[in-house]
Write a structure and sequence with these properties.
Elements (H helix, E strand, L loop, with lengths): L1 H16 L13 E7 L8 E7 L2 E4 L20 H11 L3 H4 L3 E3 L9 E8 L2 E8 L7 H14 L1
Parallel strand pairs: 4-6
Antiparallel strand pairs: 1-2, 1-5, 2-3, 5-6
Helix pairs in contact: 2-4
């Protein structure tokens, strides 16, 4: 009798433990606008991209301010684009959940690695230092790889 109850309990616990919520969003943010811009430069200061629905779009024209950037309607393709997409799909939580700035972004008039992370009705802007040595150790490799991929 005890054996049957024990097996029954194992079965029930197994079913509960394996229950998945198929409606759970596992793909991350809906959209990421990212790239490098220099807020203290005098001319073409932006090189931004938009990642949406697994595709990458580059900015249409040279613009000085982030707010003025418009993105091409046609997505980018190629091996380098695949590399960038893979990096974005593994965006560290330290960036995605940051509140504003990581490192000393923009100090000494240096360019900034910019992220605007849009998820449903929430939007978060993060500015990341492009001086790798000023970043937390856990982000140095990721930021270095992304900067190399987009430059």
């Amino acid at each position: 009798m005890f054996k049957h109850i024990f097996i029954g309990c194992l079965f029930v616990f197994g079913m509960v433990a394996c229950d998945r919520d198929d409606n759970k969003d596992l793909k991350g943010p809906e959209e990421i606008i990212f790239g490098v811009y220099g807020p203290f430069c005098a001319s073409n200061c932006t090189k931004l991209y938009k990642y949406k629905d697994g595709q990458l779009f580059e900015q249409k024209n040279s613009e000085r301010f982030i707010e003025d950037v418009v993105f091409n309607q046609n997505n980018m393709t190629g091996t380098q684009v695949d590399n960038i997409i893979n990096l974005l799909e593994s965006l560290p939580n330290a960036i995605a959940e940051s509140e504003g700035m990581i490192g000393c972004a923009g100090c000494a008039d240096e360019p900034i690695l910019y992220f605007k992370i849009i998820d449903n009705d929430k939007s978060n802007e993060v500015r990341v230092d492009t001086d790798i040595n000023e970043l937390p150790t856990g982000l140095q490799s990721y930021v270095s790889q992304l900067l190399e991929a987009i430059n």
